[in-house]
Amino acid sequence: MRKVIAIVGPTASGKTPVSIELAKVSGSEIISADSRQIYKNIPIATAVPDENVRKNVIHHFIEILEPEDDYNAGRYGKDARAVIENLHSDDKNVIIVGGSGLYLRSLIDGLYEEEIDTSDQRNILYEKLQKNGRKALFYELIKIDPETASNLTEYDTRRIIRALEVFYTTGKKISELRKNVPKINFDVILFALQHPRENLYKKINERVDKMIEIGLINEVRKLYETGYHYKIHNSLNTVGIKEVMMYFDGEIGKPEMLELIKMNTRRYAKRQFTWFKKDKRINWIPVDENTTSAELINEIQKIYEANPGV
């Protein structure tokens, strides 16, 4: 089977620039595994590679959906697998890049996404959420499906409800159903760039300042003024967009908005790091301020050549 490089890890860790340079060297196309870059009209908020970069290196699953479009990790996994298989059939190399853990899991390991109507149970569970809180739902999942719960926290509300609604509708644990998902027909070598925490947080703060400088507020204003809102459209319920809309709603001032974006991005990066650290297949490459792209690419290629794949 062909081998595919996947560069994963927390936001602002340098996945994108390294993947682009590696793609140029290897003649690869990039499969984005980012649950927000897939949406149109929010390139600054989601740090989408600019058009000039994408002219030189082909990217897939970037800015293909409208903010109101319904999409999920299960569909992404199926779609991304199909694109990779088509690229391989044309003898093209592929690099997977992203920090959305569930998208990556769906692509590499598969997710259970049978077309069944779970809406009745979902409504009941959301009522439970309002009445008893997310922690109670999380403990409910721990009792029913500890394997699934072990990969989540009480803050993963949508995923907890998804697992519970499938169980109460089908009588089967989602962790068991996922084991019957077809395997991919290519091997994946996983990499992540590991920065000292203080360095990563500094990069995050600098990135947020840059986003504000190049027009984040105006980007979000265009959505806000045409009726889009993070409380209505889940695709916009993301760091950088939510806080700006809170500012527009008059809930917070501009200085607080800026600090909230930085704080929430750091928290998101911490959750990503915790998620990926659980995956023992990932090759973590230490990075500091003096590490060059050439050094990273050389290390990735060396491990790739020596590794048989997942």
Describe this structure in words.
- With 310 residues, the protein is of the alpha/beta class.
- The chain folds into two domains: 3-111 and 181-306, Rossmann fold, CATH 3.40.50.300; 119-178, Histone, subunit A (Orthogonal Bundle), CATH 1.10.20.
- Helix content is 53%, strand content 10%.
- The chain has 14 helices and six strands.
- The chain has helices at residues 15-26, 51-56, 73-89, 101-108, 119-132, 134-144, 146-149, 157-170, 174-178, 197-214, 216-225, 242-248, 254-277, 293-306, and strands spanning 3-8, 28-32, 59-60, 93-98, 187-194, 283-286.
- It has a six-stranded parallel beta sheet, sandwiched between helices.
- The longest helix is centred in the C-terminal third of the chain and has 24 residues, at 254-277.
- The protein is globular, with a radius of gyration of 20 Å.
- The mean pLDDT is 94.
Rg for CA atoms: 20 Å
| Average pLDDT taken over every residue | 94
Spatial gap, N to C terminus: 11 Å
CATH class of the largest domain: Alpha Beta
Number of helices: 14
Q: Assembly state here?
A: single chain
Could you describe the largest sheet, including whether it forms a barrel? 6 strands, parallel
Fraction of residues in H or I helices? 40-55%
Structural category: alpha/beta
Number of domains: 2
Low-confidence stretches: none
Order of helices and strands: EHEHEHEHHHHHHEHHHHEH
Question: What would the CATH topology of the largest domain be?
Answer: Rossmann fold
Shape, please? globular
Question: What strand order characterises the main sheet?
Answer: 3-2-4-1-5-6
